[in-house]
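Proteins fold reproducibly. Look at a sample protein:
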Amino acid sequence: MTLAMSWDEWARHDGVALAERVKRGELTPQELASQAAAGIAKVDPALSAVVEVFDDALADPAKAGANLDGPFAGLPFLMKDLGPTMAGRLQEMGSLFMRGNRAAADMHLTMKMRQAGLNLIGRTTTPEFGVCSSAENPAIYITRNPWNTDYTTCGSSAGSAAMVAAGVVPIAHATDGGGSIRIPAGVNGNLGLKVSRGVFSIAPHLSDLSGLVSIQGCQSRTVRDTAAFVDHCRGGAPGEFMPYWTATEPYVEQIKRDPGKLKIALSHQWGDYRATPHLAAELARVGRFLESLGHVVDYALPAVDYAAAFAAQTTCYISNFAIVINNMLAARNLERPPADLIEPVNIRIWEAGKDTSFKERAAMQAVFNTTSRGFGAFFEDWDIILTPITALPTPKVGTREYLTTSDNPDVLDWFGNLWRNFAFTPLANLCGIPALSMPLAKNEHGLPLGIQAIAKQANDGLLLQLAAQIERAIDGKWNAGERPGVHVTSG
């Protein structure tokens, strides 16, 4: 196959740049799709990050649904195999139970992506139903970190993170119910934004507060790609639970200006969960760098009951997930999840959540409220909270304590293991506030470590503005300009 450009040239382009070349007539959407497909073929044997490539989308992006007049002009885009459905395509959610599940229609966000000019060329891996921290079930696939394949990508947006980091596509779909955009972005060296509540619709599903704990989004390698994705794919559908808001200015314009002097709080301990000394030192180093950019940086933390907040988040996950499984069972006339098709921890979560009472849900929502108010009060005095993206270094592949294949009989203890590592991401979901992982540090093993910036609700643009200021200051060299060992430019 003759490719449109060398791999070095491909890797130098972000999505906006590729789209601009298509608009100038220098490249065609088919050439972009062919190059992305060749990238998948080159690196995926080592990473197991792509479930399926859509041959029709490679051959004819417009016929497959991409609006070639849209701002992304047919840019190839990989979809996480969870979340927005694609008409006629399989969506198997990382589960043997969902093998052969084919969607009847596009969801609202899928239509927005197509209208924006994204060419949806394939599906990427996810843990079963997106529940755990890594896409690892040997019966399905084991997705590996392109920086060192002995380590996991984390999750749940596992395959998308690996494909962006490996240079296959500049931007890919991701979802985040407690860190599933930001954590894999952080451990794979990408940018990962969890937007505020009220940006991306999940219509026609879950028009209520608890359904909006999980957020749609993307991973990318440049701030402007993420900004453009949000600008062009945001917005509600008819009948939403609440109004969907619009920024006063497109983010692609806002990020061209530096923010004013910001008051930034560093934090590496939330309740009983604390980062390792190495990760705390990396956070402090980034804090000093931000001071050099003119910001005010100090240590501070919102005054909330962290133990109660994590318990409420756990109740939300368990009870929401039980409803999801119940709906799947009802569609198949089954009374309980089949043990040979659904992973053991997911069955235990269903058992723990299927009889959740209204009283328990009401108590959960009350903690959501007090936690959100605590963070809101904090942001009256501070602009941004900065944390490591994880509290512990990236696990090796096969670390079962984080997996839904674990034999841990205690669901609450299993979630406690998750929070010990992934302590700093889930409360942003609970509060509906934006958070962004930026590839600015390394963990103890020399792998990427994202530094997370959190802001008050609807200050998504401020996070992107800060990231763009940083990107300019480092001359675009996220990850200190390094690339992972498994990369389209390698070999």
About this structure: The CA atoms of residues 201 and 374 lie 26 Å apart. The mean pLDDT is 97. The first strand starts at residue 50 and ends at 53. The first helix runs from residue 7 to 12.
